Amino acid sequence: MLAKLAALRGQSIDIARGTFLCSLLVAGTIATQEPAHAEGINWRQFEGTSIVWAYDIHPYADAVAAQLPEFEKLTGIKVTPELYPDDSYWNKLTIQLTTKSPAWDVVGTGIQPAWDLSPSQLLEPLDGYLNDPKLTDAGYDYQDFFPALRDALTWNLKDGQIQPGTGHVWAIPHGFENIQLFYRKDILDKYGIKAPTTPPEMSTACEKLKAADPSITPLGVRGVRFWSSIHTAPVSIAKSYGVHDFFIKDGKLDTGLDSPESIAFHKDYVDMIKKCAAPSFANDNWYQVVDGISSGRTAMAIDSNMFGFWNDVAGKPASGKIAFAPPLHAPNAQNFESNIWIWSLAMNAASQKKGAAWLFIQWATSKEVDLNGAVAGKLVNSPRTSTWTDKAWLDYASKPEFNDFVDTFKTVQDRAALAFTPRVGFGEAMNAWAVAMQKMVNGADVEKTLHDLATEIRSSL
Predict the structure, then answer these.
(1) pTM summary value
(2) Which of 130, 379, 387, 446 has the fewest other C-beta atoms within 10 Å?
(3) What is the pLDDT of residues 237-283, one digit of tens each?
(4) Rounded to 5 degrees, what are φ and ψ at 216?
């Protein structure tokens, strides 16, 4: 199943549009902080070891790569980065770990792929390393990570399934995304439109925008037939309607995707997509969302907040024109909800250099390295609470060109949490949801489509 999931991801992503995928390593170091010289452990206890760190080509990877000379100087450990385009990386990760190859020592992963990797003992549990005073300095401060991120990466396994919240730590947060509405302030101001707060409000705003300027696509959202199109806008908004992807009923796992709450959400969401999204919706991934908002061809987007930040950077065409707001919520809801995606560092269980691998993970996710990456404009969603109170980062991220990025982040993060039910086999069910969403947008009856979707999911439980 994992190979199928990776293949589907590869099919869904057009790397040619990777506007914000950074090239390979950035030479040199960042001078905002001293390197992470922790007290109390021997950083040179694995001196002379060489390890391989594999990751997606991404600004978050560049944030660490720029500082690697400092780690090698501190530890005497040589780190070889292997950075791959998005689709290639996830396929290679599947092959490397499922074949139990020791070639990669440290890997980047997301929370959902880790659910499928851990039951087969392909990832090394990290709580033993965290609790070893010879390997982890007290100043590392694991509690400094946002609680929602720590909770999402901690679980036990029972009968091949995930029991979240307590148990082993399977990965360490390296960066993350919460879901927000971000929009071209210049366009909305021009036509006197306020940032919408609900799907019906969004539908009304879109109709007004299209009447005023038909060349502008009102809303950019992902629509591809892959679970990544569900984990941004749909699941965040659906949660505010009271939708549950899975729940326990009479002691058994069941899906809530055909519930009255789900029917109400999908009717509003599908209507919104029909009135607001581009005709290319079914083929749109995050590349198209980002391109639209940065160029001004799209007025609004619901996706990962960091995309708006990277487009507001001084000197870019959209600099200072993108503003931020919480994601949409149900008309009768008191609050919005925001899903999280967690970029994490994990250890290959087949690694033969686990001690050195752990020192690298510890260093790469330390307060100093995270802060350096943030101030460099790469790791803009640091997973550490201390970064978000640090003057150097706040001074940078609060510059006028970033509008209300910091304040909106803090508002959204107070409610940001994993919106999916942790489980092995997550990908297949959510891929089916994405396919059903396309059918409904193309005119299929909402209630019948959701009934068929739920029946399909139940048959595999």
Answers:
(1) 0.86
(2) 130
(3) 999 999 999 998 888 889 999 999 999 999 999 999 999 999 999 99
(4) -95, 130
